[in-house]
Amino acid sequence: MISAPTGAPHARILGVGGYRPSRVIPNSEIVDLIDSSDEWIRTRSGIVERRWANDEETVQMMSVAASRKALDHAKISIDEIDCVIVATVSHMRQTPAVAALVADELGADHPAAFDISAACAGFCHGIAMASDFIRGGSARNVLVIGVERLSDITNPHDRGTAFIFADGAGAAVVGPSDEPGIGPVVWGSSGDKAELIQTPDWFEANEAKETPWLTMEGNPVFRWASFAMAKVGQEALEKAGITADELDCFVPHQANMRIVDALARSMKLPETVKIARDIATMGNTSAASVPLALERMIEEGQAQSGDTALLIAFGAGLVYAAQVVVLP
Ligand code: UT7
């Protein structure tokens, strides 16, 4: 008989950090290309401005910067990280995984390192995996990164996407704990809706000399997210064994301010629950949106160490993941 893996009794988030690219792009810089207006964008999405990366702010560079902040916050040295997970859909090379390059640039001691593709839900998938790896004995401390440079694959002339998508990185260090700090994940997929958010086949795009732009049928995604995701959030609360009244913070994927509000309403979250609204100044940064929103709530003092937070994210696939976590 071989030995069974043994891990920590529980896992929790020990620290979070983010990187916000330096170029601030107000709505006024976008509206002419898509025959839109500042007012339309604010009313329909809640976005006032977003960040787009410059040439130096690569997926790797932003990941490293966010990770350094998360490690500082967690008071964990890079030597103690034995697994690095990067969630992204805008690292423009299929292989090698950017996670291995990020780990190397951070000076990590040869950790497991790989990328995952779960679009805007990638960070929440990574947190679920980290929790299971730590409890299962595959890793002691895991660095989970959500990062995007969506400006590379967003068509500036596309009315449905140009004003919404943006760039950035967020990271979390997940480690062992004596008490439960990451609740059971509720996750799933609806591949029958795959065509609602997608990039084309890259070989075909290349042959046609076209950029593989990201396309989105916004309205059906909006309706799906506003209704179906409230049930997913409710289930994550139930599985964590808490009620909405006991929840401190709600940190949904920053897809659209109206979706954030609709979810809070459908889930009947009491007014005492603090709600992340990072989208107003960051746009929709896909895999980076939840950790960036979380970082802001902690930095601005809206969220306190020990608070419970419901994370929920959804996107291309369509895929989704939600869990309740205890904040570092
Ligand atoms: O992050 C991954 C998951 N993604 C999401 O969750 C995004 C979900 N979707 C959304 O956030 C929203 O669907 C959008 C913000 C993208 C669009 O808002 P909407 O309320 O669904 O607008 P719509 O597409 O239904 O369009 C409404 C109207 C249309 O005009 P008519 O037919 O009512 O005359 C559009 O032609 O707004 C028009 N329109 C625009 N007007 C000005 C569409 N795009 C624009 C625009 N500027 N950019």
TrEMBL record:
GO biological process: fatty acid biosynthetic process; secondary metabolite biosynthetic process
ACP-binding, as annotated region: 254-258
Record field: transmembrane: none
Gene Ontology MF, one: beta-ketoacyl-acyl-carrier-protein synthase III activity
Record's function text: Catalyzes the condensation reaction of fatty acid synthesis by the addition to an acyl acceptor of two carbons from malonyl-ACP. Catalyzes the first condensation reaction which initiates fatty acid synthesis and may therefore play a role in governing the total rate of fatty acid production. Possesses both acetoacetyl-ACP synthase and acetyl transacylase activities. Its substrate specificity determines the biosynthesis of branched-chain and/or straight-chain of fatty acids.
UniProt domain comment: The last Arg residue of the ACP-binding site is essential for the weak association between ACP/AcpP and FabH.
Name used for this protein in its record: Beta-ketoacyl-[acyl-carrier-protein] synthase III
Source organism of this protein record: Nocardioides turkmenicus
